[in-house]
Amino acid sequence: MFDYAKYENATQKEIIHALNLTQRKSEKLNQQLKENREIFKFLQKKLKESFSSKKNKKNNIPNSKTINALNNNTSIGVFNDFDEAKKALMSDE
Questions:
Q1: CA distance 40 to 48
Q2: What does the record list as coiled-coil region(s) (predicted)?
């Protein structure tokens, strides 16, 4: 908050000095604002790219008998319990 009372009885030199300081501070803040806007736009772009690239990427899991069998669940058959499925999948590798 600005203290107006501080400058009520200030000399012309003090007022000019305060004005110069305020102007420099304003320029610095404007520069920071410009940089923040640029960073914001860049990060938005990167985020959009990351979402679109995830949609376009294929699953990078290497092909194996287990993965292929899971993808084609009819090739393994129906299992009654986990141990039976595990044995069937492990024997394929």
A1: 12
A2: 19-46
Radius of gyration of the chain (CA): 34
Report the candidate in 14, 13, 33 with the shortest Cα–Cα distance to residue 3: 14
Distance, in Å, from the CA atom of 92 to the CA atom of 65, rounded to the nearest integer, reads 6
Handedness of CA 50, 52, 55, 57 (dihedral sign): negative
pTM, 2 dp: 0.49
Q: Which conformational region is residue 2 in: left (phi greater than 0), alpha (psi within -120 to 50 degrees), or beta?
A: beta
For the chain (93 residues), the mean pLDDT of every run of 10, in chain order, is 88 95 97 96 90 64 63 60 71 57
Joined together, the tokens standing for residue 39 give 């960073």
